[in-house]
Amino acid sequence: MDKKTEALNKYFGFSSLRAYQEPIVDKLLEGTDTLAVLPTGSGKSICFQLPALMKNGLTLIVSPLLSLMDNQLQELRAKHIKAAAAYNSFMSPEEKSRVLRRLSSLKLLYISPEALSLPFIVERLKEVNVVMMVVDEAHCISQWGHEFRTDYLKIGPVREAVGNPCMAAFTATATPEVQLDIKKQLRMEEPAEYIHSVDRVNIALFVQRCTSEREKKKELVRIIQNAPGPGLVYVTSRKKCEELKKLLQEESAHQVEAYHGGLDNEARLMIQQQFLHGDLDVVVCTNSFGMGLNKADVEFVLHYHFPKDAESYIQEIGRAGRDGRQAWATVLYLEEDIIIPQMLMESELPPVDELDAAWETAASSRQEETTADLINKLGWTETAARFLAFYLEKHPRKRKSELLEDLEEKVQQRRFEKEKKLKVMVQWLENSNTCRRRLLLQVFGEALMKRPDPCCDICGSTIPVRKQPGNEKEKVTAPWEMRLQELFFGKEREHE
DNA sequence: CGTTCTTATAGTATTATAAGAACGGTGCCATACT
């Protein structure tokens, strides 16, 4: 038995890797930069966990959400893998300093891009042997890095600071442009690439054009009444989230809840757990819901508002049909809904005619207060302020005139890129001739090889009805307090 | 850009309608002490 198989067996209890995992593990073992686009729920974490455990030194896993770190750690703990830890703000000061002290005895450290960018963390990492860095959900680099969470763009520089270890990026969805962006930001040079199809053949795709908000609501109610669920309804505002929750609670027999960033952590955890355990049929949510959701039997994803680009769309519908059974996704398309993503996009970028004022403001504040000052003195959104602060930090020595000129161009460039993505999304919705699946795959640089049945509305399919299994397994309902307890304080859970 | 809420006016008791304004998503983060 070779070393790899031995380790696989020892740590994970498997006798062999799946065909697509094998080459990725090999590349990482030999220290080659790797970009992998793999469908969700396909055992991608083992692709980096195994090499990390076999290597001599520390692997950093950059993860976008604390809950994702927590999930993966629970899984590792369940397999009695001890050399793994997280560093994040959810931990007590004691726990944090303990982790930093025992870094050299760890194999895996889960960390957010923000924590990874803290100067004292970088200094500490320089003292230990970092052999590999992994960016999980790497599309976040492109989706969030440029404005919302600019620390995503600092992963590349940190990599260089800690001795340029091997870099791996994993995601389930990336267009060719996003792949390029990931490679550039992470400073990957000629990485090995494993790009799998983003097509989910068991999800049928539909778009239903509506002419008014009222019609859309009626259609929503009709569809949900007839869908046994479980399913998700995506909207782009918190208010709408709550409103539609109420509507569906009144008009359908389903258990319905709303999920968005305005809820506190406890409520969010609760809803996610209830949905996971089958105690909720429908969750009306904003784009905050779904990442890391490990639920196999989601039957449908309904977009009450359409998302701002095709990647978000693929990601969101990808939460359906993980169990391989027939699932469907439908968009209730109302033309004027385009204004919401447009406004949100606009609010992420600095107003071009205030760049001069922003420069003056920044010049008179300390670096760590630049963002706050831009928000308070100029009334900018947090995201726009962060965008500017990041840019100034990156180019500290540029002359004012030159900097403002560059900045304006950069803002226009970003606006252009975002608008283009939105336009592609709308074109997809408006299209009435070409198979939706074919067109969607085109955005990801893929050709449609084989059309599944059902495929999409344009191919003549209608929303499939799932046969209900006659003898559903009995629900085991533990008190909620107990489940929350498990989540906060941990309890070994089995997975897979 | 449309929805939804607030304020203003009309004109006269209680409400009706118009004009104006606000709003619309994603999450992470060392600090105080000698």
Outline:
It is built from 21 helices and 13 strands. The protein is α/β, with parallel strands linked by helices and 496 residues long.
Number of helices: 21
Major sheet: size, sense and barrel closure?
7 strands, parallel
Through-space gap between termini: 24 Å
CATH architecture of the largest domain: 3-Layer(aba) Sandwich
| Unreliable stretches | 470-496
CATH hierarchy, class of the largest domain:
Alpha Beta
* DSSP strand count: 13
| CATH domain fold name of the largest domain | Rossmann fold
Strand order of the biggest β-sheet: 3-4-2-5-6-1-7
Structural class, please?
alpha/beta
CATH homologous superfamily heading of the largest domain: P-loop containing nucleotide triphosphate hydrolases
What Rg, in angstroms, do the CA atoms define?
A: 23 Å
Q: Give the helix level as a range of percent.
A: 40-55%
Provide the number of structural domains: 2
Q: Proportion of β residues?
A: 5-15%
Q: Mean of the pLDDT scores? A: 90
Label the overall shape. globular
